[in-house]
Amino acid sequence: LDTINNDYLSGPYKVDNWDSAQKVLTVVPNENWWGEKPLLDRITFRQMEASAARAAFRNGEIDAVAANSLTAYNDIDGTSGAEPRRGQKLYAGGLVINPERLTDTALRRAIFAAIDRKAIAAVRFNGLNWTEEVPGSMMLMPFATDYRDNYPTETGAEAAKKILADAGYSQNGDYLANSSGNAKFAITTFGDDPVSSATAQTIVQQMKAAGIECTIDNQPDANFSTVIGNKEYDVTFSGYGILGEDASGSAEYFYHSATYNGIGTDEIDAMCERLRTIESMEERNALSNEIEKKHMAEVATMIPIINGPEIWF
User: Fold this and answer.
1) What is the pLDDT of residues 40-66, one digit of tens each?
2) pTM across the whole model
3) Coil, strand, or helix at residue 37?
4) What's the N-to-C CA distance of the chain in angstroms?
5) Which of 292, 313, 284 is nearest to 78 (CA)?
6) Phi and psi (nearest 5°) for 190?
7) Which helix (H) or strand (E) holds 192?
8) What DSSP element (H or E) covers 63?
9) Tens digits of residue pLDDT in 72-82
10) Residue 115 and residue 132: Cα distance in Å, rounded?
């Protein structure tokens, strides 16, 4: 963790110093790099809470900072000498459900039905001068040739309640419950961005309307890699990039049961394993869409909500 061997790495830069306690990484040009020479003599990366990073940017301590939410954008806009740059983010973001903690398939399917994705996207993009159609895939951008909307069509609070009722849940006060207790999960958020908090609060209300109890588990930004890497969450808002034109790698990773310690179906696993035998990308993408549609309907672990803008100052 604390010793990085540049002989194992490649690229225009090499590691000059890594301080795991301060979470500061410094890189310098790699004299062995055979490609185009890098333009900068030194780059320093610092891990900081989002609000602290913005304060450091305003004070001239760092040179670039992300501003993909309204809070962040307003916090930085108007800083002397700062220039915004924006573009389409090649990213699929949404709710990631951990089936190793939420083992009840009916509950996961009910979350898929209960979530109002348009309302959550509106919270995320409010004030950013950004609109988009809610995506229906975690694998391809909506403008990709082989993109398909693979999201289940039965949605809404009543559809969610029916899924739970069919699985043996019944009304227990404000929530639906079975012999194990309320239909319940925690949504894990990171950092102090009010937009993330508002997103979580919106999800809590949407779930309550469907009879599902949802609580909020807020973690510091610095805990992100540990919590996600160790799967110490029920549900979190996360995502994946950079999305390209070939969906097969994403389909195999996102939807094979090996990703979830065996949780999935033999049929979907067999479909994933067939991907490697298909030469044509178009045919692989067609099968990838079948896999995603089937997995969302039957296993229910990843809810696409946004692609979004990439904004940096």
Assistant:
1) 999 999 999 888 999 999 999 999 999
2) 0.82
3) coil
4) 31
5) 313
6) -130, 135
7) none
8) none
9) 899 999 999 99
10) 18
